[in-house]
Amino acid sequence: MEKYYITTPIYYPSDKLHIGHTYCTVATDTFARYKRLQGCDVMFLTGTDEHGQKIEDKAREAGVSPKEFVDKIVEGPRGVLDLWKLMNISNDRFIRTTDDYHVQSIQRIFKRMFDKGDIYKGTYKGKYCKPCESFWTESQLKDGCCPDCGRPVEDAEEEAYFFRLSKYADRIRDLLENTDFLQPRSRVNEMVKNFIDPGLEDLCVSRTSFDWGVPIDFDPKHVAYVWMDALFNYITALGYENSRYDDYEKGYWPGVNIVGKEIVRFHSIIWPAFLMSLDEPLPKHVFGHGWLLLDGGKMSKSKGNVVDPYILAEQFGVDALRFFLMRTFPFGSDGNFSTELLIQTINTDLANDLGNLVSRTTAMVDKYFGSTLPADQRYQAEMDDNLKGMVSGLRDKYQAAMDSFAPHKALEEVFRVVQRANKYIDENAPWALAKNPEELPRLACVLYHLLEATRVCGVLLTPFMPDSCEKLFAQIGAEAEVRTWDSGARWGALPKTVTVRRGENLFPRLDMDKALDALEAAEAAAKKADLPEIELEPQLEEKVDFDTFCKSDFRAVKVKACEAVKKSEKLLRFTLDDGTGTDRQILSGIHKWYEPEDLVGKTLIAIVNLPPRKMMGLESCGMLISAVHTEKGEECLHLLMVDDSIPAGAKLC
Ligand code: ME8
Hints:
Layout: E1 3-7, H1 19-37, E2 41-48, H2 53-62, H3 66-75, H4 80-86, E3 93-96, H5 100-116, E4 119-129, E5 134-136, E6 154-163, H6 169-178, E7 182-183, H7 186-196, E8 203-204, E9 206-207, E10 223-224, H8 226-231, H9 233-236, E11 256-260, H10 264-277, E12 285-289, E13 292-294, E14 297-298, H11 309-316, H12 318-328, E15 335-336, H13 339-369, H14 384-403, H15 407-428, H16 430-433, H17 440-461, H18 466-476, H19 512-530, H20 546-550, E16 554-564, E17 572-577, E18 583-588, E19 603-607, E20 613-615, E21 618-620, E22 623-624, E23 626-631, E24 634-639, E25 641-642, E26 651-652
Parallel strand pairs: 1-2, 1-11, 2-3, 7-12, 11-12, 13-15
Antiparallel strand pairs: 4-5, 4-6, 6-8, 9-10, 13-14, 16-17, 16-19, 16-26, 17-18, 19-22, 19-25, 20-21, 23-24
Helix pairs in contact: 2-3, 6-7, 6-10, 11-12, 12-13, 13-15, 13-17, 14-15, 14-17, 15-17, 17-18
The chain binds ligand ME8.
Ligand ME8 binds next to helix 1, helix 8 and strand 11.
């Protein structure tokens, strides 16, 4: 059986995971599942990269040991392991670079390279980017800052060990330029131009200024450079230079390393040079995927724009989220993430196209044939050829896309067939065939074709949405033997007299406004749950000076009319008597809590000297005051109302 080894970058647990990290791991999981579907003996590795100064610093700030700090992020509630479980990540192994066997391997590897003369002692003078844990030479800096993250760098000088990276420059150039080692091809130029052409300098591979790393056992004031420690995880996890595993000898290596674009330099220059030094085989491929961006910028906790994968998966479903990530963003390029796009994709591809195909087809088999198709399926028609041809040719196209690391293209092919199948329903109008008893064999044939198209799409979608495809198979009556890779290329594998079992709607349609509101509420609740209790105490809120407060003009206002704003789920439009003799219009997003007719005649409190704002094309002059609190995770809102003894226009002071 062909062995296939694939890895994700090991995550640096200095903070919580965001949707960008999830993207990378879901993609690798999809490839691993695809190879398993093909019958390969797959080893899929992920893990965490736990050493380095940044973690030592963060742990100190938190008042815990570095190990306690990383343990919480890796193993704690809603930590890394929990997230991969939730996302249905099928890794066979999880490595932590603090694991004893890995530490032992790094020490042995360091010694072997030292004994060989590829690592030597010298003095490090240069620049260091602490957040990226990267050394840079003066010439590599961009405007004096780290070329990766743009942040300031520090001067660094210390006794250090160096790796003779320069010795491997020609071999690395050849590897990049003349093989398909680094993909997509577009990344090759960047590496050669920025790093190889200016000349590769030897690489500093030890530090003495902090302790949180793998100690060099023959010179213990040094710890191994975190990238050396991290890169070797790909083979130490197979048992290289340790006795914990024996999979390295069993032939899993060389494997495929999937990495994000900012760490392609480490993986396509330093990593192969390390392996060359040890005379070990190089990875089959390094694939550098793009970034998910938010509003065109990088996702990062510090920008306060992290999108929590837990919340997204809980709100929209694990498979819908997995699917969206793979369907929407071409794998080698950057893409702009947005929740609106996620909801749109769910509605279009999953609810309208795939979900509808399954529910319409099973409903018709159920309605016209009492759930089991009859064996008599005469009358193939010429109009069937196009659908049959597309379905029969689908697996090859899908395979070509997957093998060139283009899962988005594979999904494009599958959805072309899903859409074609939906069109086939309309072309054949089964409801019309059902009216004529003589047409029943043709009707059975049409429905069988639809089930076949659905089944083949289901087989090929399994790596992307494993749980949903199981449900899909159960509904269309596809048993285990027709869920296989082989059967994915065989038109007619489904037994003719198949029995369908109508089930729940696989992907219900979402209401955009409601879904966004629910997401906002879930995010707010999660943020609250994250905060230490003391920060919720009102006395810690920012103070407003008395004069500023006095500038606010609060008035009693009487509701003359109130109506829902067209095309808005939330907004109510109030016509108010504010005592001035001229009506005042205020818009308020409170429809969730109040029906407009219940508010007419009530006296409310409004702040009336805010600058006018436009909402849904209407002007709002002021804001109604309400009291808001959360009960059982639900946001509750009450408008402040006063009794009739207070006339409209009365000023609150
Ligand atoms: O780089 N979009 O760890 P890491 C897409 N420990 N991918 C993103 C992303 C985004 N917005 N943000 C991060 C490290 N990633 C090292 C790896 S491997 C020997 C050591 C990806 O936690 C990023 O590109 O900073 C990287 O591939 C992965 O998440 C882990 O990032």
